[in-house]
Amino acid sequence: MAFTLFRFKEWQKKYKELQENVVYTQQIAQIGTWTRDYETKSLFITDELCRILGCNPFEFKGDSEIFMKHVHEGDRQWVQEYMSKVQQGSDYDIEYRIVTESGEHKIVRERTKTIYDQEKPIRTFGVMQDITEKKRMENDLRELGDVYIRAQKVSGVGSFKYDAQNNLSVWSDEVCRI
Fold first, then answer.
1. Predicted structure pTM score
2. Are residues 89 and 161 in the same domain?
3. Same domain flag for 119 and 142
4. Residue 169 and which of 15, 44, 114, 143 are 20 to 30 A apart at CA?
5. 12-59 per-position pLDDT tens digit
6. How many Å apart are CA 128 and CA 112, to the nearest integer?
């Protein structure tokens, strides 16, 4: 009996550590998760998802209406269409805009996986990642590329890159023009 109790305590400790690791991983990666149970009609979301949405986890009642109010007005209709497709058997991987309760605008990526029992959806798992900073960096990089192209054009200087390993060269439009 004592050995079994000892093993149980060890398993409890390991389980708690695993739960903490999941929480830390979600915080570091800025990923929140949610689970929709179709039988109980309940929606469970993690604290990290609440942080992304800017809502209080203690005030969230598992209502998808509350969740949808965070979706940017310009994206709300098509996001709702994707979400309703899940109940018809389609998972999704989409990016859209949200607005937090404090008015902060963010861009998120959301992916889902639905579990079925005899072709009937039982549960959907969703993962939402805050990709706002990634999108800002992509936009900044695009803008820098545009500035670089304009600078070459104005100065009459072109550029090229040669990849010796693949024997491939890439010339800018300005080199071709010169």
1. 0.73
2. no
3. no
4. 143
5. 777 687 777 777 677 777 899 988 888 888 888 888 998 898 887 777
6. 9
